[in-house]
Amino acid sequence: MEAYVVLREEEYPTLLEELKMQLPASQMVYYPLMLSQENLLPKFKAICVDKWPEFTCVLEVENLADDVSPHRVNAYSKREECSVSLHSMICQLLQKTPSDILIYGGPRRMKEIISKSNDSNSSRISASGCCGSKSVQGTEPTDLLIHNAYRVSKDTLKKSEVPLHFSVTTIKKEHMDLILSKWKHSEIFSDAKEFFTHTATSLESVCILNESGEPVAWGFEQHYGAIGMVYVLPEYRRKKLGSVVVSILSEKILRKHAFVYAAIETENTGSISFHKKLGYEECDILVYPECIFNWFLYEKEKKGTTKCCQ
User: Fold this and answer.
1) Which residues of 198-222 are buried (b: 16+ CB within 10 A; e: fewer)?
2) What domains sit in the chain, N to C, each tagged with a CATH number?
3) What pTM was estimated for this model as a whole?
4) pLDDT tens-digit readout, 139-163
């Protein structure tokens, strides 16, 4: 018996409105659905809920070919105690795909809750990562890759001027080989070039060019609404190009939305200081009791504990 209900496309707008009222906790399912409804991202193969219309769990399944690995699925649960139900939905999906599944989203303590439930499928989660406040890090399983959520608004963003001899454009398809060669996690996705090329060229992006018209710094909006893939070539660092990328990219996204996020590893004090100088503020645990971004890697068979990427 299926542990979920597959929604009809005409029900998507109702789901979107409900998810909007639950932001920021629902960010990782709200944002992709909103973008797909605006035809900026491909339509989903399926959107599943545990029940309808009074749902507590949501899964958005990307329309991927069978030979793509891992399959990407966006997840959301209204309450942490629904982790077992969400996990059951994911395991049923896993049985229907030949590849692993990378889950974007889900409750912060899902892996811990599933483990305590003695679910025989709990070992299928081979890696996980979370983005939340430092105030709750002590409760995390030891193998989590921990990030903190920072956000900026129109009122707090500080703008950076483009240095002389550099110009600003958007990311083009011809830039993607260079961009992916500098991203340490690119081999995780069998369709990395196709997926990130579409994301970078369809959503907001910033690319800094030198006098010869060559890309030297870049960053672009992720499908779940955060900024990401920010990078400056080593020989062009200490020229404030990173500040220009993040500042302009944030400003672009803020023209459409009230806030924009960055997920920063807790040990990366340099990046934390960098973002704070641009007006980013760490999300307060009292305001956001749940973390904003999570990742879970489900494997067909457990192979190891390789960390999941942001």
Assistant:
1) bbbebbbbbbbbbeeeebbbbbbbb
2) 5-147+291-298 (3.40.630), 155-257 (3.40.630.30)
3) 0.86
4) 343 344 566 788 899 999 999 999 9
